[in-house]
Amino acid sequence: MIVAFSVTPLGVGEDVGEYVADAVRVVRESGLPNRTDAMFTSVEGEWDEVMDVVKRAVAAVEARAPRVSVVLKADIRPGVTDGMTSKVETVERHLAG
């Protein structure tokens, strides 16, 4: 499965990059395939391991912020591995064609 999620601390002011970095650090240290862009962090793996990473990433922000907002989208497709790469490659192939 692939989960794309964003964690936003609330009540800490406008500059939230330091807090978001705490969440991204948890994801990167998990060892699971991941990718971060300007809006979301995607992580790929089995249900329990991915949800554990999301939970720990949220907890890292929650430890320093009075309130946390989470947006999560999941692509649950049993048997597919390396979906983050293969999905993008498919789109790129069609664009090149």
UniProtKB/TrEMBL annotation:
InterPro entries membership: MTH1187/YkoF-like, Thiamine_BP, UPF0045_domain
Chain ranges of the Thiamine-binding protein domain: 3-92
Pfam families given in the database record: Thiamine_BP
Domain of life: Bacteria
Family affiliation: Belongs to the UPF0045 family.
Protein name, per record: MTH1187 family thiamine-binding protein
Species whose genome carries this gene: Streptomyces solicavernae
